[in-house]
Amino acid sequence: MTEPTPAYTPAPVAQKTNVLAIVSLVISILSFNIIAVILGFIALSQIKKTGESGRGLAIAGIIIGGIGVIFWVVFIIIAVAAAATGAITTTY
């Protein structure tokens, strides 16, 4: 004798999102760029191992954080070059 099929379908279980991926994106938006990039790479590594979701969040955190790091590096280079050439002067 066969068992009757259930009259209901169980609800699908929501896939867990990697916490570090979320933190990476939020921190990149808050301009803590180097930390966001590091956490994004750690999140990608964890996502590969565990199969969690959040890969796009981790990549977004890496990209936004990377753009922020590049911005600050260029800004510092320009500021140092301007100071070295005498373009910035201070008077007391």
UniProtKB/TrEMBL annotation:
InterPro entries: DUF4190 (IPR025241). Keywords: Membrane, Transmembrane, Transmembrane helix. The chain crosses the membrane at residues 20-44, 56-84. It comes from the Bacteria. Residues 20-75 form the DUF4190 domain. This is DUF4190 domain-containing protein.
